[in-house]
Predict the structure.
Amino acid sequence: MRHLLSTEDLSLANAIRILDTAEEMAAVGEREVKKLPALRGRTVVNLFFEDSTRTRISFEAAAKRLSADVINFAAKGSSVSKGESLKDTAQTLSAMGADAVVIRHWASGAPHRLADTDWIDAAVINAGDGTHEHPTQALLDAFTMRRHWARLAGTPSAGADLKGMRVAIAGDVLHSRVARSNVWLLRTLGADVTLVAPPTLLPIGVEKWPCKVSYDLDQTLAGGVDAMMMLRVQGERMNASFFPTTREYSRRWGFDDNRLRALDSLGFKDTIIMHPGPMNRGLEISSAAADSPRSTVLAQVRNGVSIRMAALYLLLSGDTREPAHHTASTHSAATNPAHATKESH
Amino acid sequence: MVLSQADIDRALTRIAHEILESNKGSQDLVLLGIPRRGYPLAVRLAAKIAAADPTVDPAAIVGQLDVTMFRDDLSHQGTRPVYPTQLPRTGIDNKVVVLIDDVLYSGRTIRAALDALIDLGRPRIVRLAVLIDRGHRELPIRADHVGKNLPTSSAEKVRVRLEETDSAGDGETGGTPVNEVVIEATA
């Protein structure tokens, strides 16, 4: 893996590898010294063209736990507000010696642009691009689900996938990069995904996505759900009326107190309620649901640091020497395999 | 073949007794195996120590110490998988920790292990037990307990196969489980 841009092209092996590595990273948070020297001397730039609190802090915490140096770049108050292009910003960062760029951008595809051009020679991690993808969020959601699923089955979560798990994702799918990333990743991991939203908040072509689509939350819940993920209603991206009133939205597609009680009366005692945050309490999720023991909102935040540590470690720990040098060293390893294996002793 | 199953077993029995002897008993002992093959060796040693001293609960003194994140060659090799670190319930503070690995070569793994250990606590004494010492040290590190000293050329490859982690043949899965140490000459 060179970059982490999307979950659509993430293979099952790589997805499991990230989740398993995150499992080991989670243990670091419980140690006396909560720091690993793995990325000492490497520089991670958080390049945020869009507001974010938890994702940026999460990436910053992850990079610092791995001993990397972190540079935070927010478009507000930077040369971007003076009209600097993405290319110039990237080349500036490259000249400063960034080893990894964590980018959030309002334009879908910006991280791909950064990864595919020679503007910057660094690992690119997509931290959310427009309404396209947010792969680390989907990975931390899958990590949270996998731990829950493995605990129910009484098996270790390392190496496991999500086969057979029923996941419903409800809310503003149209504007949600979290929903897109989750649909692709959960399909790869073998889960059974249903999107629930008003027709106005579903993208064109959703019928071709590898998931089921429903317009009725109660019907979906009654059919059985193991993980219920509520999406944030993204007011800042809505420039048209997608639903009549917030009250109607909350009644039909929000996870309110009645639906929380319904989970109990339907006998789904192990269903978890997820939310990527930030929550609009009272709109897509009620306070009682967000604070109930079923809620994994805080576990998701915690797991986010582990997932991002895993991604940074896997992207930055490979052979970083110059390509020419690299071929020379593989050559010497071929003629002298003892050299290649010496590190394991 | 350098060591057969019986040879490995005899060497481990001797090391187990040496550990008990140098520690003057089983007081405060913790055995930490380094993944992958150090851990099964640590489990076997603990069983042998428990056989010699019935007051010892073998499961309570064994742990695994992953050193991947502490290596000095992370940016020179392909990405390495991370294995779990599991310490015994008693922790390692003020304990006599015996690090266990299969082959001692450059000493760099042990250097990483010492760093990893210090981030986890403060052992009273740290010792090192290895099944094979093949020489060619690159750091001032030596083993306290050695199964077999094996003079090698650095062009050779020492392969330890244990039934817990390996099976016969080239693949790591398939075939019958084996316990052996072989030197592979490499062209």
